[in-house]
């Protein structure tokens, strides 16, 4: 089969790729549709069609490639263009915006990540803008976990972000009383001192 295609195409690499594609297609289709009456002819025909498709794509690409090349500058630059010293967007902000707006993310997360990446807003500023920092506190307050250290520290952080310093300090102290490790104690003591 490969020799037949090499003779037809006069290109060993292309014949080899087309043969591999034909076998892959057969492995995918034949279990469901059954083997054709003449499997060898089917494989050769499929491989030949794949090779012809590849040659057509390569020919179109070769014809279109010069159109993608930048045209030489013939006109004098405008005053605006002279003032530009780099690309229109000097860093990867546009790429970050596209990544932040991935459809797998919730719309709130997309907006928040975009504000963080492009506008440079802090997490607190974004949360304040969305009025999350209060909705989250309501959810946490609805949980009944008074003996759980992280419930108190989460509650304290939310209160701190809402500007309720006295309540935040008290919640951090509750978390400190339940802390088991030295690093956790240091972190909570530092938080209490910062408020």
Any overview of this molecule?
- There is one protein chain.
- The protein is an all-alpha fold and 195 residues long.
- It has 2 domains: 2-68, no CATH class; 93-194, Alpha Horseshoe (Serine Threonine Protein Phosphatase 5, Tetratricopeptide repeat).
- The protein is 73% helix and 0% strand.
- Helix 5 runs antiparallel to helix 6, helix 8 (134-141) runs antiparallel to helix 9 (149-161) and helix 9 packs antiparallel against helix 10.
- The longest helix is centred in the first third of the chain and has 30 residues, at 39-68.
At the fold tier of CATH, the topology name of the largest domain is Serine Threonine Protein Phosphatase 5, Tetratricopeptide repeat
Principal-axis shape:
elongated
Q: How big is the Rg? A: 32 Å
Number of domains: 2
Percent of residues in helices? over 70%
Distance between the first and last residues' Cα:
78 Å
CATH structural architecture of the largest domain: Alpha Horseshoe
Order of helices and strands: HHHHHHHHHHH
User: What percentage of amino acids are in beta strands?
Assistant: under 5%
Q: What's the main sheet like?
A: none
Assembly state (oligomeric): single chain
Class per helix and strand makeup: mainly alpha
């Amino acid at each position: 089969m490969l020799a037949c295609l090499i003779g037809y195409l006069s290109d060993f690499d292309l014949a080899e790729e087309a043969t591999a594609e034909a076998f892959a297609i057969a492995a995918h289709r034949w279990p469901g549709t059954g083997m054709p009456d003449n499997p060898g002819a089917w494989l050769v025909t499929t491989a030949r069609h794949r090779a012809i498709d590849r040659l057509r794509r390569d020919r179109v690409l070769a014809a279109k490639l010069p159109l993608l090349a930048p045209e030489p500058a013939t006109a004098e630059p405008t005053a605006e263009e002279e003032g530009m010293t780099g690309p229109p967007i000097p860093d990867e902000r546009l790429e970050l915006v596209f990544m932040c707006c991935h459809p797998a993310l919730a719309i709130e997360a997309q907006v928040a990540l975009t504000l963080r990446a492009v506008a440079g807003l802090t997490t607190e500023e974004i949360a304040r803008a969305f009025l999350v920092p209060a909705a989250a506190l309501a959810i946490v307050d609805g949980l009944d976990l008074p003996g759980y250290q992280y419930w108190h520290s989460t509650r304290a952080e939310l209160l701190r972000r809402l500007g309720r310093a006295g309540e935040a300090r008290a919640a951090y102290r509750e978390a400190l009383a339940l802390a088991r490790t030295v690093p956790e104690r240091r972190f909570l003591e530092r938080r209490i001192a910062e408020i």
